[in-house]
Amino acid sequence: MIGEILSLFSGIGTFLLGMKLISKHLQSVAGGRIEKLFNKISTSKIMSVGVGVGSAAVLQSSSATTVILVSLVNSGIITLLQATCIIMGANIGTTFTALIISFNYLPIGEFFAFLTFIGVMFVMTDKNERLTSLGWIIGSAGLMFIGLDIIKLSSSALSQISSFGALFNSINSPFFLLLLGAVFTAIIQSSSALTGIVITFAHLGIMPVTGAFYLIMGGNIGSCMTALLASIGGQVNAKRTALINLLFNAIGVIIFLPFVILFGSKVVNLFENLSVSVIIAYFHIVFNALTTIILLPFTKKLTDLSVILIGDEKQKNMLVMKEKV
């Protein structure tokens, strides 16, 4: 069992390495353009959400997008209200990774792993900087699928151990699963890795699909830790940006949780013709998309709440000094 667990975490490490490399090289190719796009963004809420969707899809991380936003808000380049809309879009954009992960369970999964070889050939044979970066992106994407394959193989071995399967099937508390998903994601700083694991576990029958729903919702909250850490030491609006990201995901969980508890199993039965991996990927997309649709009219309220929760100490001190005078 120890060998299988070590293999599982090796797969997680390989997947995270692929994610890190693809994010790094995508930022080197498109990061500057994304920041310029943020700078030129209009006051349109829909446009801002669209920019958030596109940037998170390109960077393969809502956390990376939010960290960029924290720095831009910190420097006063974009407003807190604009950042709120972009955050909502970024949470939708990051769900595309879950959809890509679900492809690993299609017959063409091996082709995606083969991208590693294609990428390496670009890196080793091409001296053009842009094509070399493209090679790293392609190779890193393949590395992600190799990591998923390792996770799948090790999880398959673990599923044969009755005590391991019984452990996950016995955890039926939605609140415990939410907490588990949040803590695990906060530690590894990747909700996508969590999604890959829960899709694999559910696909192999190690855990019920509804359990995967709770873990993914918890993972959305845990993914906010990166931006919260990035905001430490920043200006007050940078801290508010990170808080808005947390509030968005927490409110989404509060809205969705009762419906998942009451109707989660019925929804899974309704779409029983779809593969488990696709159901979970679609749930992740619907969760973030509907949360955005519901909260988009209340972006001003959300920013006002962040201002109330994180006050400006300088303004408070100035008011105190005026009162003393």
Write a structural description:
The chain is mostly helical and 325 residues long. The protein has one domain. It is 84% helix and 0% strand. The protein is globular and about 55 Å long.
- Uncertain residue ranges: 315-325
Write the element-wise H/E pattern from the N-terminal end onward: HHHHHHHHHHHHHHHH
Percent strand: under 5%
How many beta strands in the DSSP annotation? 0
Let me know the average pLDDT.
79
Provide the number of structural domains.
1
Structural class, please? mainly alpha
* Number of discrete helical segments: 16
Compute the CA-based radius of gyration: 21 Å
Overall shape: globular
Largest sheet: none
Helix content: over 70%
Report, as a whole number of angstroms, the end-to-end distance: 71 Å
Describe the protein's topology.
Blueprint: H1 2-40, H2 45-59, H3 62-74, H4 80-93, H5 95-102, H6 109-125, H7 129-159, H8 162-170, H9 174-188, H10 191-203, H11 209-222, H12 225-231, H13 236-270, H14 276-295, H15 299-309, H16 313-324
Helix pairs in contact: 1-2, 1-3, 1-7, 2-3, 2-4, 3-4, 3-12, 3-13, 4-13, 4-14, 4-15, 5-10, 5-14, 6-7, 7-10, 9-11, 10-11, 10-14, 11-13, 11-14, 12-13, 13-14, 13-15
